[in-house]
Amino acid sequence: MKRLYLDWNATAPVLPQVRDAVMKALEAVPGNASSVHREGQSARAVVERTRRSVAKAVGAPAQAVVFTGGATESNNQVLRHHVRTNAKPFVVCTAVEHPSVLEVVEDLAKEGVKTAVWPVDRKGRLDMEWLEKRLDEGVTLVSAMWANNETGTIFDVASIVDAVHEAGALLHVDATQAVGRMEFDFQACGADYMTLSFHKMGGPKGVGATVVREGLKVGAIMSGGHQERGRRPGTENVPALAGLDAAAKAVVDHGEMWIEALKRRKAAFLEELTRIEGVEFRGDQAQQLPNTVNAAFDGVDGEDLLMALDLEGVSASSGSACTAGSLEPSHVILAMGYEEKRARESVRFSFGPSTPVEELARGAQKIAQVVKRLRRIDADWR
Ligand code: PMP
Question: Does 322 qualify as catalytic in the annotation?
């Protein structure tokens, strides 16, 4: 049975050119990028080439890019660095951030830092008036993602940045889910910090970047080395960075085409899913990633549906892979005001530009069959 992988927001299949670049670097680049001999220099060349490629892919100068072990680490770095270097920090994040932001903010609050969580409405949209009020109370850093990993909802970063800067605060944007799925440009948007990883679009896992606006600093949150100009200790993962280079180049070369391909796939998938009785699409349909569909089928528990679909060869998820397996319903859907039982119905389908359109239509038909079967088992439905 050929499986249909609809969990690209957890991670994507590695692009062939990424795999080739990683393999090549494993074989041909044995050095440590901090060593001064020739092997070291060729490793350094890979690191710096990748810095330029990532910078180009996201619209930033190369020196703004600090490599880390992924977006989780970058999110921790930005928030922790801010609190350490600010005399009176007041950190705000949206209620629908990835746990690598939300849980850091919770930890900071326990440590005595002033924090607040920015609520969303039923569609996962932010209330700007709420922010304006908080900004007047002395907020120093706002953390808001560009696109949500569970619902695909895209935030209006341009209006957030204006409000935040007017109040003299800083903006951190987590762009992890935006890479290769929507156009964005770090410098043009005016944000102060951005975090990235490319593994949702075919890059390697376990490597990412913190991007810092010119004139601002980001410091190390670990000790033990001076790599990345003192901003991230630890020997650089050169093979992974070679893969990241290939992924960043692919975004530059194919990004526009990917976005168009995703739009076509989403339209075909939604056309089939819409036929299912009692389906509700969650998130802001007007501002949503072209690769993400968050759907709830009235009366069908999301976990039951996911297990049944897995047996049928379809892989999807109920939320962030970082919290999967916990029996709690998604914090994102709860924050949107759904009560627990309804929140548990949410299932996330996410795909990529290489997902065959006809497979998506077939997948949707399978979803329809499974939903019907589960509703028959649960005679209470209706
Ligand atoms: N932020 C968002 C929005 C994400 O979706 C993810 C991945 N689940 C992360 C951060 C964490 O990224 P990484 O896997 O690179 O640590």
Answer: yes
